[in-house]
Amino acid sequence: xxxxxxxxxxTGRGKNIPGFNIRTYTMIIALLSIxxxxxxxxxxxxxxxxxxxxxxxxxxxxxxxxxxxxxxxIAAQIDLSVGSLLGLTGxxxxxxxxxxxxxxxxxxxxxLVVGLLIGIWNGWxxxxxxxxxxxxxxxxxxxxxxxxxxxxRGTTIAPLSPEFKFLGQAYLTNITGxxxxxxxILAIIYSSVKSRTQRIKYNLDVMPVxxxxxxxxxxxxxxxxxxxxxxxxxGIPFPIFILAVLAILFSYILNKTVFxxxxxxxxxxxxxxxxxxxxxxxxxxxxxxxxxxxxxxxGVLLTARLDAASVSAGQNAxxxxxxxxxxxxxxxxxxxGTISGSIIGALVMxxxxxxxxxxxxxxxxxxxxxxLILLTAVWIDISSKNKS
Amino acid sequence: xxxxxxxxxxxxxxxxxxxxxNNVCLKVKKGEIxxxxxxxxxxxxxxxxxxxxxxxxGTYEGEIFLNGKKAIFHSVKDAEKSGISIIHQExxxxxxxxxxxxxxxxxxxxxxxxxxxxxxxxxxNILLKELKMDVNPYIKVKNLGIGQQQLVExxxxxxxxxxxxxxxxxxxxxxxxxxxxxxxxxxxLKLKNVTCIYISHKIDEVxxxxxxxxxxxxxxxxxxxxxxxxxxxxxxxxxxxxxxxDLFPKEDHAVExxxxxxxxxxxFDVKSPARKxxxxxxxxxxxxxxxxxxxxxxxxxxxxxxxIYGSYPGKWNGELYLNGQKIIIKTPKDxxxxxxxxxxxxxxxxxxxxxxxxxxxxxxxxxxxxxxxxNSINSxxxxxxxxxxxxxxxxxxxxxxxxxxxxxxxxxxxxILARYLLRxxxxxxxxxxxxxxxxxxxxxxxxxxxxxxxxxxSVIMVSSExxxxxxxxDRVIVMHEGKIKGEFINKNLDQETIMQCAIGRRN
Lengths: 388, 507
What we know:
Strand content of chain A: under 5%
Structural class of chain B: alpha/beta
CATH class of the largest domain in chain B: Alpha Beta
CATH superfamily of the largest domain in chain B: P-loop containing nucleotide triphosphate hydrolases
CATH architecture of the largest domain in chain A: Orthogonal Bundle
Strand content of chain B: 25-35%
CATH class of the largest domain in chain A: Mainly Alpha
Number of helices of chain A: 15
Oligomer: heterodimer
Radius of gyration of chain A: 22 Å
């Protein structure tokens, strides 16, 4: 039973990479197999820079929603209203911009504020009025869609001002892309060197040098390849840039901040969290507020990409977001989940959509396949857990 | 003449790390009321769970004979078919369903799957009349008092043609009047040749109703006698009467002045806010002492300490003084601010966050202390501090990142202790700190408690194990039915004195 305590705090040697669980690994493998299958089936068309650029742009909306949904699901809650909220905020920005000639930036900001307020409304009912989040957000799903249909009078609103077009359809120039990439690489190297020296300073375990270098190099190569491929087409699409920024920011919030850690604690065991002096109500409210803000961001992005707002925008988007989180390893029981996993989940969903559309597979098949993939992903996870 | 309905022979049952029952034998005569007495954790409930099929055959050693025939129960259903019914301490009724459905749940009179409600109601009426209950069978169980709910449970058992009825602490939450009704009904059942096994540690009740008493202690049968051949004091002595082994590293602590006071605490039941579960309790705590709170289950100990900590779900009132200053604690957050922490009784439900790692479980109550720029957490310091506690408390874990659910019970308890030791503490409240923990880990936890006291932390320890109270505490207060009934300095204090006080026999 003796335990070598000196080894206790290591980050693990490949076994326990933080932020990754078995389901995430399975999903990376699944993602690669899906890509290989589509590449073969389309005789290589799937892997062209043009299509990949498209694919990533398609996933940006689900990706943004999945980031917020990850927080909600980890806290053992659910938010069914994000699809309608996305439509509503997108609609509001378009109405202000097109009908009332409000400056593009302002209309976007107002839409974001509305998203935040509605998020607070959802959160208030859940946290302080103790109405189950499923009900609160199911109601929200109907209410916000209803408001959208009312204020747009059922019409499609277009065209929007150039700011929107830039947001939705612009590309970063090749040089900007590489420049940002270089910055990111420097940041990665800096932080890994810093954490290593800190660990040595405090006499904690560190990874062997070759492994550490190998791991960092691997990440850098992936990053460079990603940017290079996108640059082969027209550069990094602006929505992808935003998604990347949000993913990094919210990963930081989830893993490194007090708020993020409390979300895990609340979802893991709400009673224990209360007894540990955590203000569960306040944190739950913040959670939903944040999710509302992210849904509004997705709404603006979608409106910008389509250069129009319609009453059906974002329908079923909440289901895609939930599926992305679950495929990416989040547990509906709460306490478990990662942003990186959910982004991969979103990529799986977008790849299926994109690949099947390229093969001209009828829409009904797309629904069936996506549903079965979701079911299988969770089943694999549960059965692997039961075995251990 | 000795016509035994039930014989349990050499029953041995092991749980991981603990032997709950060791060669237990029990013989019950037909038509008698047989009381099973023992301290909390003596093994009474485990034995009854074996008898009623909750632990199926194969999970224990030994044999059961029913009416002279060997009985093998694979499930609760098997036991029920043989005429054995158990009424658990926590009632298992469906509160939102009417009485008649509760009685026949799982057993509905039906014709090809269609329930015959009229038949259910008719039979319910007969059963209710038998139990002298004048209630409408259609009303929902949640609208009945606890005593009546208990009777519904009994009606449910009778509906299954029960020959052997097991009652596990049936009077724990009943009022005097309800107890009287229950007693008269049990006597009536006896006339109908229903055999009862009555589990209780309320000695007075046992002597009122039982024909035979079996005392169980530490998983062994100690003595079975006719009730006339026992005195109450003898039973109490047999229940607790073991020598205190050197399991307890008892230390005398340099006790200083009183610095924490609890005054006039009243705590009200969550479900029926008119009922007091703690009645005007006042006590004080000295710096550097261990104060034990003893009492039977349901005496209001957990309710008292959890309301001091601000985590009680119902209403409470009363005053708290720390260093002479009045303090107000409404939530655990307030309590922690004053350096008061509580390790709850139900480790799984209230303590552990199973999906998180050992480190995250340790630091979850102190995250603010690790905050740096941009609200970020300094995980290096977090690791260092957690590691220090892991070493200090000798938590056996392969890794700080190991999920806490993979640890043993004793180590899980230490992780929760570590969570609160990470903060600067004045007072540590421990509610049943060693429940469900094997002996070795218990010893370590006792040592740890002493170590903390030496560092100047005062400990309030609620425990149902008398030997633990006597082995550890400097001072003991005893609660009985919500009131503090006695206070003892732990000098030559024996378990009997505490037990007498806990069952309300001495005021």
